[in-house]
Amino acid sequence: MRREDRPRLVVVAGSTATAGIEGISAAGADADAMRHTPAADLEILAYGRPTGAPVVPVSPTGCPTPAIVTRAVRELLDLPLVAVDAGIARSTYAPTVDLGGRPGRDVREPPAVPDARKVFDAGREFGASLADSELLVGETVPGGTTTALGVLTALGHRPRVSSSLPDNPIELKREVVARGLEAAAVQPPVDDPIAAIHAVGDPVLAGLAGILVGATETGTPVTLAGGTQLVAAAALARAAGVSRRLALATTTYIAADDGAGLSAHAAELDLDLTVTDPGFGAVDHPAAEAYVAGEAKEGVGMGGALAVAERAEIPMARVHERVVALTDRLLSDRREAEA
Amino acid sequence: MRREDRPRLVVVAGSTATAGIEGISAAGADADAMRHTPAADLEILAYGRPTGAPVVPVSPTGCPTPAIVTRAVRELLDLPLVAVDAGIARSTYAPTVDLGGRPGRDVREPPAVPDARKVFDAGREFGASLADSELLVGETVPGGTTTALGVLTALGHRPRVSSSLPDNPIELKREVVARGLEAAAVQPPVDDPIAAIHAVGDPVLAGLAGILVGATETGTPVTLAGGTQLVAAAALARAAGVSRRLALATTTYIAADDGAGLSAHAAELDLDLTVTDPGFGAVDHPAAEAYVAGEAKEGVGMGGALAVAERAEIPMARVHERVVALTDRLLSDRREAEA
């Protein structure tokens, strides 16, 4: 792939106290570790392994973060990376662009994102500054499918979202969002995307929406790399007046997940959908098996990265090789840390 | 160059009010523009041009920043970059690792770096975290040769430094440093590197020294990429007890500058010296002529980047082509901004 054709990977990271609700997220071994997941994910993207974050981001069952897959593709294609801090709870050694945000609050106690306007505006200016390359925009925020459900509900969409858990705790998420909307006295549909994020979103959604609006203002091509949260970001961008076609690249795990309602959302939001099969069924490794069994599914730009690898005609077997090598090193770091 | 052989470019950026002293620095068109130079340099390294900083970093005569040369080599070799914010005066859209520092004060009014210990410690921890690749460590801090003179003097070295101006205002620098040392009641030689930085250094020297100490603690190979300021960082690392051999890669413009006393410093500090000729005499471009006439000389990792290009057997003509293309775009951005 020629240097000038490589997309720039933009990963927006942040935290929400919503992730601490029992049973909501699998993006970390436990609630404490989950607070470090965005920092660790960014370090994996930047360096190939966590270098400062004191945790190895795996699910409670040991399934490693999708950041590994994105990193593998990044290594194979030398994709440029910009990590964006929209409000992460723990510091990271990954270089970041700081949008000036703070971690989000529990959506049951709105406002979930008191500084939503500020983060959106900072994201918009930053998005407008990135005028040279196609952008591949992803996210890392534990608890983010619940806040995505929140803004989709607030904006009046039919609320369907995915999960990092094999059994989507969708009823719990709906209940959490309903409590938040009621406490915020928000009656869907609301027109104002900032109001939706402010009430029941998270800082990453504020940053993503801002970046989408800014990038489309300057005519920069954008591919949304991910599942439910990127659908929510697209809905926010539409609510903010973005009329250009947008692309969404995700994995078959999301597309096959009835709960996520991906094709309905894509049609409703006018998103060009690319679905890539990671082909993990062919990989003899416990981590691949966990994905096949329905864990993790997507995140940290994974679906978009795989789509770019396919576009660049990188054989999936080469991606797998690198995923396995990175995973084994990650798990060996974890054993060392625990020893 | 194989991916695993590529060094990681680590550029530490910061500001010091010392740069505002009339006649001290050429790292910016004027005093106001100079405050944005570190932010703009990092954006050039990250994106190829300033994307958020409202200035184009050129000297008062229009000579462009050496960041252009480093970026050219980075593009040719896909060098990974980590930009480090040790205390810059203006925000940047380049992703940075934040050492938590603040811009330094005028060395005539010590302490020049009130938080020197904190920044050094943060740099040390960060340096220790970067254990995988060789590091190529550079800097961007307008006024930095004066603060380098400050710490070299404080540590008891014979104070010889370079300049971004063709005629080195060395007497002015000595006077400024002497006033600072007197006001701080510091009697050279001092043993404590932190005390030297605290009195008459700048935040970048605190970050550089910390990173050197941390990286050598974990056995990571380090090449200092630059001139006078990197000599000062090496002197600080030696004062902090680093006994391992260190490499310094710089340009012939610094090596040919009697004032910089490079070989004497290298011998005294046990530095393996690599000197690369940018060959700009062969380039028909006003920017190249300014370098040949003695402007800029070095900075933002330029000498180290050229040494890596030579090691990777990239023909210097390819580097020149890209430098010219990047410079022309930079100057055209500048004309647009002024129109």
Features:
homodimer, 339 residues, alpha/beta, 7-stranded parallel sheet, 13 helices, globular
Provide the residue-averaged pLDDT of chain A.
93
Overall 3D shape of chain A: globular
Total number of β-strand segments of chain A?
Answer: 7
Number of helices of chain A: 13
Helix content of chain A: 40-55%
Structural class by SSE content of chain A: alpha/beta
The string of secondary-structure elements of chain A, in order, is EHHEEHEHHHHEHEHHEHHH
The gyration radius over C-alpha positions of chain A equals: 18 Å
Biggest interface pair, counts: A-B, 25 and 25 residues
How much strand content do the residues of chain A show?
5-15%
Distance between the termini of chain A: 42 Å
State the major sheet of chain A.
Answer: 7 strands, parallel
Spatial strand order of the main sheet of chain A: 3-2-1-4-5-6-7
Oligomer: homodimer
Tell me about this structure.
The structure is a homodimer of 339-residue chains. Chain A is α/β, with parallel strands linked by helices and 339 residues long. Helices cover 45% and strands 12% of the residues of chain A. Chain A has 13 helices and seven strands. The first copy, chain A, has helices at residues 31-47, 67-77, 116-129, 144-154, 170-183, 193-200, 203-217, 228-239, 252-255, 262-269, 286-292, 302-311, 316-338; strands at residues 8-14, 81-87, 96-98, 135-140, 222-225, 246-251, 271-276. In chain A, strand 5 (222-225), helix 8 (228-239) and strand 6 (246-251) form a beta-alpha-beta unit.
Topology at a glance:
The structure is a homodimer of 339-residue chains.
Chain A: E1 8-14, H1 31-47, H2 67-77, E2 81-87, E3 96-98, H3 116-129, E4 135-140, H4 144-154, H5 170-183, H6 193-200, H7 203-217, E5 222-225, H8 228-239, E6 246-251, H9 252-255, H10 262-269, E7 271-276, H11 286-292, H12 302-311, H13 316-338
